[in-house]
Amino acid sequence: MATIKLRFRPSTISNRMGSLYYQINVNREIHKIKTGHKIYKEEWNKETGEIILPSTKSLRYNILEGMRHDINWDIQRLKQIIEEYMSKNSRIFFSDIVNIFRPCISSDNSVFTFIEDQIFRKKEIGKIRTSETYQAALNSFMHFRKGVDLTFDMIDSDLLERYEVELKIKGLKRNTTSFYMRILKTNYKLAVERNLTKDRNPFKHVYCGIDKTMKRSITLSDIKRINSLDLKQQPSLDFARDMFIFSFCTRGMSFIDMAYLRKTDLRNGFLTYRRKKTDQQLTIEWTEHMQRIIDKYNTEGTQYLLPIIVKEDGTERRQYINQIMRVNRKLKDIASLIGLSVPLSLYYSRHSWATIARYKEIPLSVISEGLGHDSEITTQIYLDSIKACEVDKANMMILKEIR
Questions:
Q1: 289: closest CA among 272, 273, 275, 271?
Q2: Residue 273 φ/ψ region, left for φ over 0, alpha for ψ in the -120 to 50 degree band, beta for the rest
Q3: Is the dihedral of CA 240, 244, 250, 256 positive or negative?
Q4: Which of 123, 294, 340, 350 fits as disulfide partner to 252, beta carbons 3.0 to 4.6 Å?
Q5: What are 120-169's pLDDT values in tens digits?
Q6: In 3D, which of 307, 310, 334, 309 has the Cα closest to residue 237?
Q7: Cβ of 218: how many Cβ atoms within 10 Å?
Q8: Which residues of 270-285 are buried (b: 16+ CB within 10 A; e: fewer)?
Q9: Is 349 exposed, middle or buried (0-12, 13-18, 19+ CB in 10 A)?
Q10: Residue 219: which of 348, 336, 387 has the closest Cα?
């Protein structure tokens, strides 16, 4: 029989961390394996042989809780390794057990490496935005793990619940925490398909859905006020306003699609392009509103219709990112100019077009087609805020009666 206990060796230097190690007793022989974890003397309970967890408000709480998770997983794995080894061998060589245990995390079963490979594959097939979201999720998870890699077998509901708590402590909203969880879940399911782990359903206690977002639309009157602003003396605000209005005029075209519009996409009075997000082809009738914006800017020297990407030198993606950040920042200044109390951004043009169209009783199927959605369900998410708005109006009418 084998017993495995966690032990602590304090540092000989005052106020320094000591080392944690596994003490393994096999057939009355005692062996030691380093855990790679270090804690302070006051964080060790000598009587119970456990790490002492501080208050949840302590900066050390998540670190120590993570250690406990990894150590428990190590102990279970060591027990399994020893039992399997003893069932196959009449004599135990402890060096064999150590050699089996040590390469626990390799490039073949590393979670970090697996997701990095997926990021590389997304880039290879041109899904740049997806690769960026995968990278953001990986960076977040690596930060939570303090850079300590793990295998997919080590991902359990306890680990993910602690990760979700840390994200919430940082002030992230539920849709953002869910965003990271969904990307992890996608990679976990892929690892299950490739037989890297059994599916233990570790995501069952964390939120992976999509909440209804706050209302992100403004009225047609607001759109008109933005359009009529005299911004000739403020070129950066003028440009931001023009991009917003162009997006609205083109049925809420996303900024990335605007950035990559080519002059050749405009032919015979129609603008035809493919959405970067879905690869769906859309055709929009060209109007004088759009033409007025195009006429204001010089785009000679590039193939692009709008002055978002101004140099074709391999930095196109970076130019797009810089421009969207700049435009969204300036749109908030424009909102202040007309007294809007919303954090105006380019996304408001898309929601506003859909909302205004719905108020004009345009069928949902037509709005869905105009937005380039694959499903009317997606369009309905955009329009759910209308229902809330209508209920609020009804409530106000009722309350007036009790004055």
A1: 271
A2: beta
A3: positive
A4: 350
A5: 999 888 888 889 899 999 999 988 888 778 889 889 898 999 899 889 88
A6: 334
A7: 22
A8: ebebebbeeeeebebe
A9: buried
A10: 348
How far apart (Å, rounded) are the C-alpha atoms in residues 246 and 263? 15
Architecture of domain 111-193: Orthogonal Bundle (1.10)
Tokens representing 89?
A: 């061998």
Q: Dihedral through CA 220, CA 385, CA 215, CA 224, nearest 10?
A: 0
Per residue in 237-284, pLDDT (tens digit) is 999 999 999 998 888 899 999 999 999 999 999 999 998 877 888 888
Domain ranges in the chain are 2-104, 111-193, 220-399
Give residue for tokens 């998870």: 141
> Is 18 within 8 Å of 44 (Cβ atoms)?
yes
Pairing of strands 18-26, 29-39: antiparallel
- Asked if 141 and 180 count as a contact pair (C-beta separation under 8 A), the reply is yes
Take residue 26 and report the two structure tokens written for it.
């096999």
- Amino acid identity for residue 159 in this structure: L
Torsion of CA 329, 331, 332, 336, to 10 degrees: 150
Considering only CA atoms, which of 269, 262, 305, 272 is closest in space to residue 286? 269
| Eight-state DSSP code of residue 345 | -
Question: Which is the CATH superfamily of the domain at 220-399?
Answer: Intergrase catalytic core (1.10.443.10)
